[in-house]
Amino acid sequence: DAELDGPFFRRWLAAAAAAVDREADRLTELDSAIGDADHGANLRRGFAAVTDVLEKEEPAVPGAVLMLAGRQLISTVGGASGPLYGTLLRRTGKDFGDAETVTRQRLAEALAAGVAAVAQLGGAQAGDKTMLDALLPAVDGLGESFAAARDAAAEGALATVPLQARKGRASYLGERSIGHEDPGAASSALLIAALAETAEK
Ligand code: ADP
Ligand code: MG
Ligand code: MG
């Protein structure tokens, strides 16, 4: 298994920022159906700030990269997704300690801890029609391969369409949330696709 170093994680987050920028309109459209139409703008602002701070500070090890990025998301994204994604990255990074490199298996373990922290912070679980419905299958897939993680996250995001939202703004719509893809699950699928793309380069 390849050793993933600090620069790898910086490349992942740069690829994630590019994907969010490219897909911001689609994310906002999804959020306009069952939320307040700001998810694309929220993440675009947050990930642009992440890219800036990583370029400026160039943290060396994987844990430091993810913790700095998570802190930046929390301080720049006003919506629910800022603290949730910020917690995901910070908790994942914390799990790495000061390791110079990590394997995909270690990343899968650390990401599982990060996703558990998201579930705890938001009080959500699988099937509540949130980002967790893409992130939980992604963690399982990552145990197998980056491509499996990407495919599982994409499937998980699409599988939110028939669900009724039980957490976040979309839950205020009750049954009217049914029939729409959850914006946070869609953005999580983008982040995992960026990870796979970075690993395959
Ligand atoms: P806001 O809803 O504050 O405008 P965003 O639009 O940026 O924030 O993000 C909305 C997304 O955040 C939702 O689509 C959902 O995936 C995720 N989300 C919201 N609340 C929760 C929660 N309690 N647990 C997990 N994810 C959540
Ligand atoms: Mg919103
Ligand atoms: Mg909002």
What does this molecule look like?
With 201 residues, this protein is mainly α. The chain has a single domain (4-200), classed as Serine Threonine Protein Phosphatase 5, Tetratricopeptide repeat, CATH 1.25.40.340. 70% of the residues lie in helices and 2% in strands. The protein has a two-stranded antiparallel sheet with strand order 1-2. Helix 6 packs parallel to helix 8 (183-200). The longest helix has 29 residues, at 6-34. Adenosine-5'-diphosphate binds next to helix 2, helix 4 and helix 8.
How many domains is the backbone divided into? 1
State the name of the first-level CATH class. Mainly Alpha
The coarse silhouette is globular
In spatial order, strands of the major sheet run 1-2
| Structural class by sheet pairing and helices | mainly alpha
**Overall pLDDT score:** 97
Bound molecules: adenosine-5'-diphosphate, magnesium ion
The CATH superfamily appears as: DhaL domain
DSSP strand count: 2
Helix count, DSSP H or I runs of 4 or more residues:
8
End-to-end Cα distance, whole Å, is: 15 Å
- Radius of gyration (Å): 15 Å
| Proportion of helical residues | 55-70%
Sheet with the most strands? 2 strands, antiparallel
The succession of helices and strands, N to C, reads: EHHHHEHHHH
CATH topology: Serine Threonine Protein Phosphatase 5, Tetratricopeptide repeat
Which CATH-level-2 architecture?
Answer: Alpha Horseshoe
Ranges where pLDDT stays below 50 over 5 or more residues in a row are: none
Provide key terms for this protein.
201 residues; mainly alpha; Serine Threonine Protein Phosphatase 5, Tetratricopeptide repeat; two-stranded antiparallel sheet; 8 helices; globular; binds adenosine-5'-diphosphate; binds magnesium ion
